[in-house]
Amino acid sequence: MTSRREATDPVTRLLAPADARASWDLGAESFGYPGPVPDPLPDPTRDEQIAVGSFVGDRLVARAVALADRSWWGGREVATAGIASVAIALEQRGEGLLAPLLADLLDRARHRGDALATLYPTAQGIYRSSGFETVTSFDQVELDTRDLLAARADRADRADRAARGADASPVTLRRGTGADHDAVHRVYTAWARRHDGPLTRSGPRFPADAEAFLQALDGVQTTVAEQDGEVTGYALWQRADGYHRGVTAVDDLLATTPEAYLSLLHHLGSSYAVAPRTTLWTSGDDVIRVLLPSNAWRRVDCRPYKLAVLDVPAALAARGWAPHVDAELRFAVTGPAPVAGCYRLRVEAGRATCEPDASGRADGIRVMSPRSLALTYAGARSSASQRAVGLLDGPTTNDATWDALTGGRAVQVRDYF
């Protein structure tokens, strides 16, 4: 006799173009998409993404997507699955659908060649059990616009820079156009590769040319900063909420020189009379705080960003490491296959090789949970912090080496998905 549960066990498979309407409807009820149903509907297989769904009969009851991304770690690009669009039908929530769906998706991403997976969680538990841990957050902060107007290098700063031979050329601001796509991307890349975690903003889901760049802006203004004919900074912004109580919403503000940062901030501050508040999307300990004259930095939205390592040897070999630290380290990772096991890491001149340790012995070496592995990879928490909350075990002998290998770079992100 077949039980009711057996008769309704979900079947998980790749989504196909024919599943576009069912996928849209499930997303709409989960996330409240505004406006009418688009025509044509988004193809679940677009932009090289992997989309999987769980079906009960012909009904799609759960879905999740792995975007085809790359992210910067230690100055090198690492193949990264951006986990997004996770949705479960209201009636099926609490039935344990997400864990097997996510395991299937991560396995497919691993076979695609992704060494890492990242996501913005709406809940903690299920993702932690899959090896994800928070390494930074994508935040919106509110600033007093008048503070931006006061963002100028003071006389002492200018004198100090001149004494160090760092006096820079003047900054010219102008409105950006589609022709600035490549220059804006160069500024972003120069910033991103000096941090850990930012996406490369390359690949099929990011604008590849001027036309796509303009379409992606969709009403957002672009201001670029130039020095000696070279773009050294940009701000993406828009005005909202009328005037007198208006807001300038800044979606992205990055620069490669202090003068470009200061000029962009100062000119955004010129709207203080009609837009007394400015919001800024940022992450981590943004250097912009150093340039502002007050402590006002009110976080109004916080979106934690989680990381999991999908392929230990590939992930550790792909990223860059501190070039001044050479080391040979044995360690073990607990948890389920294929991440669990004993490994040997060799780092020399900023590059690494990692392979399974043939001895298979975990006694007397560093033992990391999958969440500890994520934090260690990102340099987001020290070994001491991980030990304090029970994520890391084993001798402390090499803790300082591990911390030095990944430390020194801020973990920041600038894209939500």
Characteristics:
417 residues; Aminopeptidase; Nonspecific Lipid-transfer Protein, Chain A; disordered N terminus; 17 strands; five-stranded mixed β-sheet; single chain; alpha+beta; 14 helices; 3 domains
Characterization of this structure:
- With 417 residues, this protein is of the alpha+beta class.
- It has 3 domains: 4-131, Gcn5-related N-acetyltransferase (GNAT) (Aminopeptidase), CATH 3.40.630.30; 141-305, Aminopeptidase; 311-406, Nonspecific Lipid-transfer Protein, Chain A (2-Layer Sandwich), CATH 3.30.1050.10.
- 27% of the residues lie in helices and 31% in strands.
- It is built from 14 helices and 17 strands.
- It has helices at residues 4-7, 20-31, 98-112, 125-128, 145-149, 155-163, 181-192, 210-217, 258-268, 288-291, 312-318, 370-378, 383-388, 399-406; strands at residues 11-14, 50-56, 59-73, 76-88, 116-119, 133-144, 172-175, 221-227, 230-240, 247-255, 277-283, 298-309, 327-333, 341-348, 351-356, 366-368, 392-393.
- The strands form 2 sheets. A 12-stranded mixed beta sheet has the order 1-2-3-4-5-12-6-11-10-9-8-7, with helices on both faces.
- It is globular, with a radius of gyration of 24 Å.
- Mean pLDDT is 94; it is low at 1-6.
Distance between the first and last residues' Cα: 45 Å
CATH architecture of the largest domain: 3-Layer(aba) Sandwich
Give the full name of the CATH homologous superfamily of the largest domain.
Gcn5-related N-acetyltransferase (GNAT)
Instruction: Estimate the global geometry from the Cα principal axes.
Output: globular
* Range of strand content: 25-35%
Helix tally equals 14
What is the topology, as strand order, of the major beta sheet?
A: 1-2-3-4-5-12-6-11-10-9-8-7
